[in-house]
Design brief:
The protein is of the alpha+beta class. The protein has 11 helices and 16 strands. Bound molecules: glyoxylic acid and manganese (II) ion (2 copies).
Length: 397
Protein backbone atom coordinates (compact mmCIF):
# COMPACT_ATOMS: atom_id res chain seq x y z
CA UNK A 1 0.00 0.00 0.00
CA UNK A 2 2.96 2.31 0.59
CA UNK A 3 4.28 1.56 -2.90
CA UNK A 4 0.78 2.10 -4.33
CA UNK A 5 0.80 5.67 -2.99
CA UNK A 6 3.41 6.49 -5.65
CA UNK A 7 1.45 7.51 -8.72
CA UNK A 8 -1.84 6.82 -6.98
CA UNK A 9 -4.96 7.84 -8.92
CA UNK A 10 -8.23 9.17 -7.48
CA UNK A 11 -10.04 5.97 -8.51
CA UNK A 12 -7.71 3.80 -6.42
CA UNK A 13 -5.21 2.68 -9.04
CA UNK A 14 -1.73 3.79 -10.00
CA UNK A 15 -0.23 5.66 -12.93
CA UNK A 16 3.46 4.85 -12.96
CA UNK A 17 4.59 4.77 -16.56
CA UNK A 18 8.07 3.41 -17.19
CA UNK A 19 10.84 5.94 -16.46
CA UNK A 20 8.40 8.66 -15.39
CA UNK A 21 9.00 10.68 -12.21
CA UNK A 22 6.64 8.25 -10.48
CA UNK A 23 8.70 5.27 -11.65
CA UNK A 24 11.80 7.00 -10.31
CA UNK A 25 10.12 7.53 -6.92
CA UNK A 26 9.04 3.88 -6.83
CA UNK A 27 12.58 2.77 -7.65
CA UNK A 28 14.01 4.98 -4.90
CA UNK A 29 11.59 3.55 -2.35
CA UNK A 30 12.36 -0.01 -3.46
CA UNK A 31 16.08 0.65 -3.33
CA UNK A 32 15.76 2.01 0.24
CA UNK A 33 13.89 -1.14 1.29
CA UNK A 34 16.41 -3.39 -0.43
CA UNK A 35 19.31 -1.62 1.26
CA UNK A 36 17.59 -1.79 4.64
CA UNK A 37 17.30 -5.54 4.06
CA UNK A 38 21.04 -5.74 3.38
CA UNK A 39 20.71 -6.46 -0.33
CA UNK A 40 23.52 -5.26 -2.57
CA UNK A 41 21.78 -3.17 -5.24
CA UNK A 42 23.04 -2.91 -8.80
CA UNK A 43 21.46 -1.36 -11.90
CA UNK A 44 22.22 -2.37 -15.45
CA UNK A 45 22.43 -0.19 -18.56
CA UNK A 46 18.69 -0.63 -19.15
CA UNK A 47 17.72 0.32 -15.60
CA UNK A 48 16.90 -3.26 -14.59
CA UNK A 49 17.47 -3.29 -10.80
CA UNK A 50 18.97 -6.25 -8.93
CA UNK A 51 19.32 -6.82 -5.17
CA UNK A 52 21.71 -9.60 -4.25
CA UNK A 53 21.41 -11.91 -1.24
CA UNK A 54 24.61 -13.98 -1.38
CA UNK A 55 24.47 -17.76 -1.33
CA UNK A 56 26.67 -20.21 0.56
CA UNK A 57 28.51 -20.87 -2.69
CA UNK A 58 29.73 -17.51 -3.92
CA UNK A 59 30.35 -18.87 -7.43
CA UNK A 60 26.89 -20.37 -7.84
CA UNK A 61 24.43 -18.82 -10.30
CA UNK A 62 21.63 -16.79 -8.71
CA UNK A 63 17.91 -17.49 -8.64
CA UNK A 64 16.15 -14.37 -9.96
CA UNK A 65 12.92 -13.44 -8.17
CA UNK A 66 10.89 -10.39 -9.09
CA UNK A 67 8.62 -8.58 -11.52
CA UNK A 68 8.07 -4.91 -12.46
CA UNK A 69 7.04 -1.61 -10.84
CA UNK A 70 5.95 0.25 -13.97
CA UNK A 71 2.23 0.37 -14.66
CA UNK A 72 -0.36 1.03 -17.32
CA UNK A 73 -1.48 4.70 -17.69
CA UNK A 74 -4.45 3.95 -15.43
CA UNK A 75 -3.26 0.69 -13.93
CA UNK A 76 -3.82 -1.23 -10.74
CA UNK A 77 -1.82 -1.46 -7.54
CA UNK A 78 -0.77 -5.09 -7.91
CA UNK A 79 0.18 -5.83 -11.53
CA UNK A 80 3.94 -6.21 -11.15
CA UNK A 81 4.33 -4.59 -7.73
CA UNK A 82 3.05 -7.72 -5.98
CA UNK A 83 5.88 -9.79 -7.44
CA UNK A 84 8.60 -7.23 -6.72
CA UNK A 85 7.52 -6.76 -3.10
CA UNK A 86 6.91 -10.46 -2.48
CA UNK A 87 10.49 -11.12 -3.63
CA UNK A 88 11.71 -8.72 -0.95
CA UNK A 89 9.47 -10.48 1.55
CA UNK A 90 11.10 -13.77 0.57
CA UNK A 91 14.61 -12.58 1.43
CA UNK A 92 13.45 -10.86 4.61
CA UNK A 93 11.73 -14.08 5.70
CA UNK A 94 14.85 -16.12 5.00
CA UNK A 95 16.93 -13.64 6.99
CA UNK A 96 14.45 -13.71 9.89
CA UNK A 97 14.50 -17.51 9.90
CA UNK A 98 18.27 -17.67 9.57
CA UNK A 99 18.06 -19.73 6.40
CA UNK A 100 20.99 -19.66 3.97
CA UNK A 101 20.75 -21.10 0.47
CA UNK A 102 23.58 -22.58 -1.62
CA UNK A 103 22.65 -20.41 -4.62
CA UNK A 104 22.41 -16.62 -4.25
CA UNK A 105 18.96 -15.05 -4.55
CA UNK A 106 18.71 -11.91 -6.64
CA UNK A 107 15.55 -9.86 -6.38
CA UNK A 108 14.74 -7.90 -9.52
CA UNK A 109 12.67 -5.01 -10.86
CA UNK A 110 12.54 -5.12 -14.66
CA UNK A 111 12.34 -1.87 -16.66
CA UNK A 112 9.31 -1.12 -18.90
CA UNK A 113 7.56 -4.46 -18.60
CA UNK A 114 4.26 -2.93 -19.67
CA UNK A 115 5.56 -1.49 -22.91
CA UNK A 116 2.75 1.01 -22.61
CA UNK A 117 5.08 4.01 -22.76
CA UNK A 118 7.92 2.41 -24.77
CA UNK A 119 6.47 -0.38 -26.91
CA UNK A 120 7.05 -3.28 -27.06
CA UNK A 121 6.46 -4.90 -23.68
CA UNK A 122 9.21 -6.74 -21.78
CA UNK A 123 11.97 -5.29 -23.96
CA UNK A 124 14.45 -4.91 -21.10
CA UNK A 125 14.08 -8.44 -19.73
CA UNK A 126 14.18 -9.45 -23.40
CA UNK A 127 17.54 -7.72 -23.84
CA UNK A 128 18.75 -9.33 -20.60
CA UNK A 129 17.91 -12.70 -22.13
CA UNK A 130 19.55 -11.85 -25.46
CA UNK A 131 16.29 -11.66 -27.42
CA UNK A 132 17.01 -8.01 -28.34
CA UNK A 133 20.14 -5.91 -28.68
CA UNK A 134 20.67 -3.44 -25.85
CA UNK A 135 20.74 -0.61 -28.41
CA UNK A 136 17.35 -1.65 -29.73
CA UNK A 137 15.91 -1.21 -26.23
CA UNK A 138 17.78 2.05 -25.60
CA UNK A 139 16.41 3.54 -28.82
CA UNK A 140 12.73 2.74 -28.15
CA UNK A 141 10.64 5.92 -28.25
CA UNK A 142 7.58 7.10 -26.41
CA UNK A 143 4.75 8.96 -28.17
CA UNK A 144 6.56 12.28 -27.76
CA UNK A 145 9.76 10.95 -29.32
CA UNK A 146 11.78 10.67 -26.10
CA UNK A 147 14.00 7.62 -26.05
CA UNK A 148 14.30 5.03 -23.33
CA UNK A 149 18.01 5.97 -23.08
CA UNK A 150 17.21 9.67 -22.52
CA UNK A 151 14.62 8.90 -19.90
CA UNK A 152 16.87 6.42 -18.09
CA UNK A 153 19.51 9.13 -17.87
CA UNK A 154 16.98 11.75 -16.80
CA UNK A 155 15.75 9.71 -13.84
CA UNK A 156 19.27 8.54 -12.94
CA UNK A 157 18.77 4.86 -13.73
CA UNK A 158 21.13 4.24 -16.63
CA UNK A 159 23.28 1.87 -14.62
CA UNK A 160 26.78 0.59 -15.19
CA UNK A 161 26.16 -3.13 -15.08
CA UNK A 162 26.18 -4.90 -18.45
CA UNK A 163 22.78 -6.23 -19.52
CA UNK A 164 22.54 -10.01 -19.08
CA UNK A 165 25.25 -12.23 -20.42
CA UNK A 166 25.51 -14.17 -17.20
CA UNK A 167 24.37 -17.54 -15.95
CA UNK A 168 21.07 -17.72 -14.09
CA UNK A 169 20.11 -20.75 -12.03
CA UNK A 170 16.35 -20.19 -12.36
CA UNK A 171 13.74 -17.43 -12.36
CA UNK A 172 10.46 -17.13 -10.46
CA UNK A 173 7.74 -14.49 -10.59
CA UNK A 174 4.61 -14.07 -8.48
CA UNK A 175 1.84 -12.15 -10.28
CA UNK A 176 -1.88 -11.58 -10.13
CA UNK A 177 -3.72 -13.76 -12.62
CA UNK A 178 -5.30 -10.84 -14.54
CA UNK A 179 -8.10 -13.17 -15.64
CA UNK A 180 -11.12 -14.83 -13.99
CA UNK A 181 -10.15 -18.52 -13.93
CA UNK A 182 -8.81 -18.92 -10.39
CA UNK A 183 -11.63 -16.90 -8.87
CA UNK A 184 -14.28 -18.86 -10.79
CA UNK A 185 -12.73 -22.16 -9.72
CA UNK A 186 -12.24 -20.97 -6.09
CA UNK A 187 -8.52 -21.79 -6.21
CA UNK A 188 -5.86 -19.81 -4.37
CA UNK A 189 -2.76 -20.67 -6.39
CA UNK A 190 -2.33 -20.81 -10.15
CA UNK A 191 0.60 -22.97 -11.22
CA UNK A 192 1.52 -21.22 -14.45
CA UNK A 193 2.52 -23.66 -17.17
CA UNK A 194 3.13 -21.11 -19.94
CA UNK A 195 2.18 -17.85 -21.60
CA UNK A 196 0.21 -17.35 -24.78
CA UNK A 197 1.81 -15.77 -27.81
CA UNK A 198 1.27 -12.14 -28.78
CA UNK A 199 1.77 -10.00 -31.86
CA UNK A 200 1.67 -6.21 -31.77
CA UNK A 201 1.06 -4.04 -34.84
CA UNK A 202 0.95 -0.40 -35.86
CA UNK A 203 -1.62 0.01 -38.62
CA UNK A 204 -2.10 3.12 -40.75
CA UNK A 205 -5.00 3.80 -43.13
CA UNK A 206 -4.29 6.73 -45.41
CA UNK A 207 -6.89 8.78 -47.24
CA UNK A 208 -7.09 12.42 -48.19
CA UNK A 209 -7.54 15.39 -45.87
CA UNK A 210 -10.36 17.69 -46.83
CA UNK A 211 -13.01 19.99 -45.38
CA UNK A 212 -15.79 18.34 -43.37
CA UNK A 213 -18.57 20.30 -45.06
CA UNK A 214 -18.33 21.14 -48.76
CA UNK A 215 -16.97 17.95 -50.36
CA UNK A 216 -19.64 15.39 -51.32
CA UNK A 217 -19.40 12.16 -49.35
CA UNK A 218 -19.03 10.17 -52.56
CA UNK A 219 -15.85 12.07 -53.47
CA UNK A 220 -14.07 11.67 -50.16
CA UNK A 221 -11.28 9.26 -49.38
CA UNK A 222 -12.05 9.08 -45.69
CA UNK A 223 -9.59 6.88 -43.74
CA UNK A 224 -11.90 6.72 -40.71
CA UNK A 225 -14.45 4.78 -42.73
CA UNK A 226 -11.71 2.44 -43.85
CA UNK A 227 -10.44 1.92 -40.31
CA UNK A 228 -13.98 1.30 -39.05
CA UNK A 229 -14.55 -1.35 -41.74
CA UNK A 230 -11.20 -3.06 -41.11
CA UNK A 231 -11.79 -3.15 -37.38
CA UNK A 232 -15.34 -4.43 -37.59
CA UNK A 233 -14.27 -7.27 -39.89
CA UNK A 234 -11.18 -8.01 -37.81
CA UNK A 235 -13.28 -8.38 -34.64
CA UNK A 236 -15.53 -10.78 -36.55
CA UNK A 237 -12.57 -12.80 -37.84
CA UNK A 238 -11.14 -13.14 -34.34
CA UNK A 239 -14.53 -14.05 -32.86
CA UNK A 240 -15.09 -16.67 -35.57
CA UNK A 241 -11.59 -18.16 -35.25
CA UNK A 242 -12.07 -19.73 -31.81
CA UNK A 243 -12.61 -18.79 -28.16
CA UNK A 244 -8.87 -18.62 -27.48
CA UNK A 245 -8.24 -15.82 -30.00
CA UNK A 246 -7.93 -12.33 -28.48
CA UNK A 247 -7.90 -8.88 -30.05
CA UNK A 248 -7.48 -5.45 -28.50
CA UNK A 249 -7.25 -2.06 -30.19
CA UNK A 250 -5.88 0.12 -27.41
CA UNK A 251 -4.86 3.22 -29.31
CA UNK A 252 -6.61 5.00 -32.19
CA UNK A 253 -5.62 8.40 -33.55
CA UNK A 254 -6.68 10.63 -36.44
CA UNK A 255 -4.25 13.03 -38.09
CA UNK A 256 -4.81 15.87 -38.06
CA UNK A 257 -7.21 15.55 -35.17
CA UNK A 258 -9.67 18.31 -35.96
CA UNK A 259 -13.44 17.88 -35.86
CA UNK A 260 -14.12 19.78 -39.07
CA UNK A 261 -11.46 18.08 -41.17
CA UNK A 262 -11.64 14.65 -42.78
CA UNK A 263 -8.32 13.24 -41.54
CA UNK A 264 -5.42 12.44 -43.82
CA UNK A 265 -4.80 9.21 -41.99
CA UNK A 266 -5.83 7.05 -39.06
CA UNK A 267 -3.34 5.12 -36.92
CA UNK A 268 -4.35 2.32 -34.61
CA UNK A 269 -2.63 -0.42 -32.65
CA UNK A 270 -3.55 -4.09 -32.77
CA UNK A 271 -2.76 -6.61 -30.03
CA UNK A 272 -3.46 -10.20 -31.16
CA UNK A 273 -2.99 -13.16 -28.78
CA UNK A 274 -3.53 -16.89 -28.87
CA UNK A 275 -2.07 -19.87 -26.98
CA UNK A 276 -1.09 -21.55 -30.28
CA UNK A 277 1.50 -19.93 -32.53
CA UNK A 278 -0.07 -21.43 -35.67
CA UNK A 279 -3.32 -19.67 -34.84
CA UNK A 280 -1.50 -16.36 -34.52
CA UNK A 281 0.02 -16.93 -37.95
CA UNK A 282 -3.48 -17.35 -39.40
CA UNK A 283 -4.78 -14.26 -37.59
CA UNK A 284 -1.77 -12.29 -38.81
CA UNK A 285 -2.70 -13.21 -42.39
CA UNK A 286 -6.34 -12.23 -41.75
CA UNK A 287 -5.33 -8.79 -40.52
CA UNK A 288 -3.06 -8.18 -43.50
CA UNK A 289 -5.56 -9.37 -46.12
CA UNK A 290 -8.39 -7.40 -44.52
CA UNK A 291 -6.39 -4.19 -44.65
CA UNK A 292 -5.44 -4.82 -48.28
CA UNK A 293 -8.99 -5.69 -49.33
CA UNK A 294 -10.72 -2.83 -47.53
CA UNK A 295 -8.24 -0.19 -48.63
CA UNK A 296 -8.48 -1.42 -52.25
CA UNK A 297 -12.28 -1.29 -52.09
CA UNK A 298 -12.25 2.25 -50.72
CA UNK A 299 -9.37 3.80 -52.67
CA UNK A 300 -7.32 4.15 -49.50
CA UNK A 301 -3.79 3.06 -48.67
CA UNK A 302 -3.04 0.65 -45.85
CA UNK A 303 0.16 -0.16 -44.00
CA UNK A 304 0.51 -2.96 -41.43
CA UNK A 305 3.70 -3.02 -39.40
CA UNK A 306 4.30 -5.79 -36.89
CA UNK A 307 6.41 -4.31 -34.09
CA UNK A 308 6.56 -7.29 -31.75
CA UNK A 309 6.11 -11.02 -31.78
CA UNK A 310 6.31 -12.92 -28.52
CA UNK A 311 5.81 -16.61 -29.32
CA UNK A 312 3.98 -18.95 -26.97
CA UNK A 313 6.16 -20.05 -24.06
CA UNK A 314 6.03 -23.20 -21.94
CA UNK A 315 7.74 -22.89 -18.58
CA UNK A 316 10.36 -25.32 -17.30
CA UNK A 317 9.00 -28.52 -15.73
CA UNK A 318 11.47 -27.99 -12.88
CA UNK A 319 9.94 -24.62 -11.95
CA UNK A 320 6.36 -25.80 -12.51
CA UNK A 321 7.17 -28.73 -10.23
CA UNK A 322 8.70 -26.49 -7.54
CA UNK A 323 5.61 -24.26 -7.52
CA UNK A 324 3.24 -27.22 -7.43
CA UNK A 325 5.19 -28.88 -4.61
CA UNK A 326 5.38 -25.70 -2.54
CA UNK A 327 1.68 -25.00 -2.93
CA UNK A 328 0.81 -28.61 -2.11
CA UNK A 329 3.04 -28.73 0.97
CA UNK A 330 1.50 -25.50 2.25
CA UNK A 331 -2.01 -26.89 1.73
CA UNK A 332 -3.31 -24.27 -0.69
CA UNK A 333 -5.89 -25.15 -3.33
CA UNK A 334 -4.22 -24.98 -6.74
CA UNK A 335 -4.72 -25.51 -10.43
CA UNK A 336 -2.63 -25.25 -13.56
CA UNK A 337 -3.21 -22.10 -15.61
CA UNK A 338 -1.88 -20.74 -18.90
CA UNK A 339 -1.16 -17.01 -18.79
CA UNK A 340 -3.14 -14.70 -21.02
CA UNK A 341 -0.88 -11.75 -20.22
CA UNK A 342 2.77 -11.31 -21.12
CA UNK A 343 5.44 -11.32 -18.42
CA UNK A 344 9.20 -10.85 -18.12
CA UNK A 345 9.40 -14.56 -17.29
CA UNK A 346 8.65 -15.21 -20.97
CA UNK A 347 12.13 -14.03 -21.92
CA UNK A 348 13.83 -15.49 -18.83
CA UNK A 349 12.69 -18.93 -19.98
CA UNK A 350 15.10 -18.52 -22.94
CA UNK A 351 18.15 -18.50 -20.67
CA UNK A 352 17.17 -20.47 -17.57
CA UNK A 353 14.37 -22.57 -16.10
CA UNK A 354 11.57 -20.06 -15.42
CA UNK A 355 8.23 -20.31 -13.68
CA UNK A 356 5.36 -18.22 -12.34
CA UNK A 357 2.79 -18.28 -9.57
CA UNK A 358 -0.61 -16.64 -9.97
CA UNK A 359 -3.04 -15.50 -7.31
CA UNK A 360 -6.64 -14.44 -8.03
CA UNK A 361 -7.68 -10.84 -8.64
CA UNK A 362 -11.24 -9.64 -8.10
CA UNK A 363 -13.41 -10.26 -11.14
CA UNK A 364 -10.31 -11.11 -13.16
CA UNK A 365 -9.88 -7.38 -13.76
CA UNK A 366 -6.46 -5.78 -14.27
CA UNK A 367 -4.91 -2.99 -16.35
CA UNK A 368 -7.59 -0.97 -14.60
CA UNK A 369 -7.67 1.16 -11.48
CA UNK A 370 -10.21 -1.15 -9.87
CA UNK A 371 -7.72 -4.06 -9.77
CA UNK A 372 -7.82 -5.70 -6.33
CA UNK A 373 -6.65 -8.78 -4.45
CA UNK A 374 -7.04 -10.07 -0.88
CA UNK A 375 -4.24 -9.97 1.70
CA UNK A 376 -4.79 -13.72 2.25
CA UNK A 377 -4.16 -14.53 -1.40
CA UNK A 378 -1.12 -12.24 -1.48
CA UNK A 379 0.27 -14.04 1.55
CA UNK A 380 -0.38 -17.46 0.02
CA UNK A 381 1.35 -16.45 -3.20
CA UNK A 382 4.33 -15.08 -1.29
CA UNK A 383 4.58 -18.29 0.76
CA UNK A 384 4.61 -20.40 -2.38
CA UNK A 385 7.22 -18.06 -3.85
CA UNK A 386 9.34 -18.44 -0.69
CA UNK A 387 9.30 -22.22 -0.66
CA UNK A 388 9.76 -22.65 -4.41
CA UNK A 389 12.66 -20.16 -4.34
CA UNK A 390 14.39 -22.06 -1.55
CA UNK A 391 14.02 -25.30 -3.46
CA UNK A 392 15.45 -23.82 -6.67
CA UNK A 393 18.28 -22.17 -4.70
CA UNK A 394 19.32 -25.59 -3.45
CA UNK A 395 18.02 -25.24 0.08
CA UNK A 396 15.64 -27.33 2.16
CA UNK A 397 12.07 -26.24 1.37
C1 LIG B 1 1.65 -6.89 -20.32
O1 LIG B 1 0.96 -6.57 -19.36
C2 LIG B 1 1.01 -7.50 -21.47
O2 LIG B 1 0.54 -8.64 -21.37
O3 LIG B 1 0.89 -6.82 -22.50
MN1 LIG C 1 2.59 -7.41 -15.04
MN1 LIG D 1 0.54 -5.34 -17.01
Amino acid sequence: MEMARIGSTPAGGVSRLALSDEDRAARELLRSWWEAAGLRTTVDELGNMFGLRPGLDSDAEPVLVGSHLDSQPTGGRFDGALGVLAALEVVESLDAAGVATPHPIEVVNWTNEEGSRFPPAMACSGAFAGAFDVDYALELEDASGRTLAEELTRIGYRGARPVGGRGIRASLELHIEQGPILESASKTIGVVTGVQGARWYNVRIEGEATHAGPVPMSRRRDPVRGAARVLDRLYEAVRDYDDDAHLAVGEIGTHPASRNTVPAHVDFTVDLRHPEDDALTVLDASLRSLVTRVTDEMALVGDVRQIWHSPTVRFAPECIGAVRAASGALGYSQMDVFSGAGHDSVYLQRICPAGMIFVPCAGGVSHAESESITPEDAEAGANVLLHATVQLAGGEP
